[in-house]
Amino acid sequence: MKHVLLRTTAMVGAGLIASHAQAAQGIQLGLGGYYEAAAGLIFSQSDNNGEPGHNTRDVVFRQDVEVHFKGETTLDNGLTIGARVEMEGQQSNDQIDEVWAYFKGGWGEIRFGDDDDAPRHLHYLIPSASELFGVDTPDFEFSNDHGNGFSNGAFQTNSTMLNISGDATKIIYFSPTFAGFSFAASFAPDRRGEDSYSYWSGPGGTTFSNNTHQVQNVFGAALNFDHDFNGVGLAAGVGFAEAQWESKGNDGVKALGNVDTTWGVDGHLIVSFSGFTIGGAGLFRDNWQSASGADYWVAGFGGTYNWDAWTVGLAYSHGDYEYAGSAGSSDTIDIVELTGSYDLGRGISLDAMAGYNTMNAGGGTGHQDDNTWEAGVGFYIGF
Fold it and tell me: Which residues pair with 65 in a beta bridge?
């Protein structure tokens, strides 16, 4: 089943290491990462006036590439120590994506660095047959309902993953698995910790506490159950995160009408048997903007079937997005997709999708409707 479960490495304080512990050998640097690309075809796209989307093309090419530098070693006392740096394969404002160090052992894992919140690590996505496409946090989406240069708001697709602090510098703990149960917890002092630099904090460190429209003291926790019952797999989990808004007026006092906190919860329930994977996932986020009344929620369900090297799937998601100052009005996004993939080899697949993405703008949001019939083909190469 396709899911997000990135619990591969971790970090713990130096005080946990016995002074006599020695590594059998130093850390050896290795390379990993992925290359993925897709071509999208837009059959029909229109706004609420029946006109084509803003300067969009019928054919779209996209790619996403990352190179991972990673290495680890195991000390004589059994403690494993390592580090990982993820670099974008194309020119980017955020050239280094994630970077962390970790220590791990039988007691669990602790990670320190720029990485996602705990709820995202233990969350499973709505089932999709593709590594590239889907109704829940896909890597590639071709519709035009996006805020970057368009008039349709802040979202282009739906996501059920809760990640309030993004890749800000944080500490994360991952427990061992007990009878199928595992949990994780994370803390980030400041969302702007990722890639930040200042005279006071230096590179990649926590910044001041009065950054407009930023959050601080982000705490996250998640619980997951994943077990196989004689050929029937069950995965169920829930995550929670909470943070405080930093936005201030010029006098250091929060502006009138602004809210102090934002919080969210996500969850999933996935069942797999005899080649089938079915289930759903959801998310609720309270006060996602720094003024009251801006909440949103996403929910969806889907299923896939796998035989030999082939996998096909069908899924649906719905998102309801409120905005600050929209007087309770909200935009909605509905996505239906048919996905498929063929495994050429280990970590290599050909992927395809056909779907419908529609955004209905609320009367008070100031955005426009958008309706897109689309299809795409692509490939994924992991290395």
Answer: 35
Closest CA to 300 of 190, 135, 146, 133: 135
Angle 278-1-377 (CA atoms, 0-180°, nearest 5)?
Answer: 100
Rounded to 5 degrees, φ, ψ at 191 are: -60, -30
* Cβ–Cβ < 8 Å for 100, 265: no
Torsion angle of C-alpha atoms 202, 171, 115, 345, degrees rounded to 10: 140
Amino acid letter, 155? F
Residue 174 CA neighbour count, 13 Å, CB half = 25
Strand partners, 306: 311
Distance in angstroms (rounded) separating the CA atoms of residues 105 and 13? 13
DSSP 8-class letter at 127? P
Say yes or no: domain 29-192+211-382 is CATH 2.40.160.10: yes
Element (H, E) at 380: strand 370-382
Say how far apart CA 125 and CA 135 lie, in whole Å.
9
Pairwise CA distance, residues 31 & 200, whole Å: 34
The residue with tokens 């919860």 is: 265
The 10s digit of each residue's pLDDT in 183-229 is 999 999 987 655 554 444 445 556 666 666 678 899 999 999 999 99
User: 132-168 burial string, b = 16+ CB within 10 Å, else e?
Assistant: bbbbbbbbbbbbbbbeeebebbebbbbbbbbbbbbbb
- The CA distance from 296 to 304, in Å, is 27
Cα 234 from Cα 226, distance rounded (Å):
6
- pTM > 0.90: yes or no: no
Domain boundaries, the chain: 29-192+211-382
